[in-house]
From TrEMBL:
It comes from the Archaea. Transmembrane segments: none annotated. This is Cupin domain-containing protein. It comes from Halosimplex rubrum. SUPFAM superfamilies: RmlC-like cupins. InterPro entries: Cupin_2, RmlC-like_jellyroll, RmlC_Cupin_sf. Residues 29-88 form the Cupin type-2 domain.
Length: 97
């Protein structure tokens, strides 16, 4: 069985899980200057695809700048803290590491 979600229909959700079960798929919408506090997703590998805007992603001791069209893969075993450099929307997929 297939599941389809139209992302523009999810506007205003902030952080919204798109599908039940694994892999966890999340739409993240942040206003310019908003930051998600440092947190971890132990035993997960994460892919972040920035759909709109620009995000400064703090990953442990490293900071990666991502813009619309960029995708990054990283371990959830470290502190993660995205901050929007402008209004931004990203799609995150969290899979077993």
């Amino acid at each position: 069985m297939s599941e389809v979600v139209h992302l523009p229909d999810r506007e205003g959700d902030g952080r919204g899980v798109l599908f039940e079960g694994a892999p966890k798929t999340v739409r993240l919408a942040l206003d310019e200057g908003d930051r998600v506090p440092p947190h971890q997703h132990p035993d997960k590998e994460i892919v972040c695809h920035v759909l709109e805007g620009a995000i400064e992603m703090t990953l442990g001791d490293e900071t990666v700048d991502l813009s619309a069209g960029d995708a990054a893969r990283f371990s959830g075993d470290q502190d993660i803290s995205p901050r929007a450099r402008e209004d931004s929307v990203a799609l995150l997929v969290l899979a077993e590491g």
